[in-house]
Each structure stands twice: as structure tokens, then as C-alpha cells.
Design brief:
Rossmann fold; 213 residues; binds 5-O-phosphono-beta-D-ribofuranosylamine; 8-stranded mixed β-sheet
Length: 213
């Protein structure tokens, strides 16, 4: 039984999708804890209401990144995670932290990486006039929003789209994409070796929105 720990900072809808998929699909895993760097993260209440242990490591309690990450490691390691899942976790992590969980820490980013790293990805996609946009799940490395790509989900950008419509379309896809990838890891079908993603018995790592054409 693998142990998952999910780090959030806010709404936690990706965390929710993973917790639900874990139960509904009877993964050989359990979400051991949800940890937030913000005490007011809405996802914390949802997790607690669904019987998942929660913890807060508030970054404002600490002088700098090193101190925060040290405290985060202490809290995380209580749960002995096989996989650390960043799901809307809005803190840049130190390389010491990332090294510690190397090959067992993943993130979802709301763009088709390597396009649009960083923030405001949906607005930037609209500004750039791209025809497709989406989300990427990747292993986390020291470089922000880079790291070996595991899977990507693609949506159309419509002429009528504003950020609200486009972000909602991408988020729906994220809720499908992220649990799939976590499941591959749990079933030992996904691993990172020598900096490369290795997948076994995975038909495709591309997920297309149903209305893509
Ligand atoms: C998602 O769009 C995710 O890709 C990004 O932050 C957002 C988090 O949303 N990293 P939620 O907290 O999972 O609802």
C-alpha cells in the first residue's frame, strides 16, 4: 500500500480528484495527508471532512525558504510518502527539498510545457493566440516548471474564450489527467530513471479534451 502526500495552497480541486479516484478505483494506496502552506486553504476543510489527515506548515512562520522547507520535510516525513504530489502548491521549493524526494515528487502545471511556465498561464495563452492549450504533469526538478514531462492534456482555445472559460476547460482535463498519472506511479508503471520518464503498459500520455476538434 503506497502512501501519498498531497501539498496544496488553495482550492484543492486536483487533490479532491485524486482522493476521489483513489477511493473509487480502489488504488493500492492511500492519501496519508494533505499539507498546506496556507491555513485558509479551502482544500484543507474538504480533506478533513473526507477523513484525510491534514497539516499546515505556514510559510509566514519562517524567516526564509530553507527554514520553511526544513519544517515541511519534518511534517512530510511523518507520513513516509512514496509519492509527494504538488497540487496547486504555490511555493518555490529549495533544491535540498527536491533532492530529498527526487523521482518521487510530481507537479501539475496549467499549460503545455515548455510553453508558459510561471503564473497567469491562461491569460498568456490567450494573448499569444495559440490554438491549443492544456496542462502538464511532470517530475519536479530544481528548475521551476521544468522537469521530465510525464503526460499532457490538450484543449482547444476558442475564439469566444476568456480566462474563465479557458481555465475551466483546462481544469476539467487536469482532474482527469492527474489521477491517471498518480495511478501509473502506484501501479509501478511510471518511474524516473537517469532523468528520463519510463512508462510501462501505458497506451498514451496524451489526453485530449473531448471537444478538441
Ligand atoms: C491548477 O490549475 C494547477 O494546474 C495549478 O494550480 C491550480 C490548482 O487548482 N498548479 P486546485 O487547487 O487543484 O483547484
Amino acid at each position: 500500500m503506497k502512501k501519498l502526500v498531497i501539498l496544496i495552497s488553495g482550492r484543492g480541486s486536483n487533490m479532491e480528484a485524486i482522493v476521489r479516484a483513489c477511493a473509487a478505483q480502489r488504488w493500492s494506496a492511500r492519501v496519508a495527508a494533505v499539507i498546506s502552506n496556507r491555513p485558509d486553504a479551502a482544500g484543507l476543510a474538504w480533506a478533513a471532512a473526507h477523513g484525510v489527515a491534514t497539516a499546515v506548515v505556514d510559510h509566514t512562520w519562517f524567516q526564509g525558504r530553507d527554514e520553511f522547507d526544513t519544517a515541511l520535510v519534518q511534517t512530510l516525513d511523518v507520513y513516509e510518502p512514496n509519492l509527494v504530489i504538488l497540487a496547486g502548491f504555490m511555493r518555490v521549493l529549495t533544491s535540498a527539498f527536491i533532492q530529498r524526494y527526487a523521482a518521487r515528487i510530481i507537479n501539475i502545471h496549467p499549460s503545455l510545457l515548455p510553453s508558459f511556465t510561471g503564473l497567469h498561464t491562461h491569460q498568456r495563452a490567450l494573448d499569444a493566440g495559440v490554438a491549443v492549450h492544456g496542462a502538464t504533469v511532470h517530475f519536479v526538478t530544481a528548475e521551476l516548471d521544468y522537469g521530465p514531462i510525464i503526460a499532457q492534456g490538450v484543449v482547444s482555445v476558442l475564439a469566444s474564450d476568456a480566462v474563465v472559460e479557458l481555465s475551466a476547460r483546462v481544469l476539467r482535463l487536469e482532474h482527469n489527467l492527474y489521477p491517471r498519472v498518480v495511478r501509473w506511479f502506484i501501479e509501478d508503471r511510471l518511474r524516473l530513471r537517469n532523468g528520463r520518464v519510463e512508462l510501462t503498459a501505458v497506451k498514451t500520455r496524451l489526453l485530449l479534451d473531448e471537444n478538441l476538434v
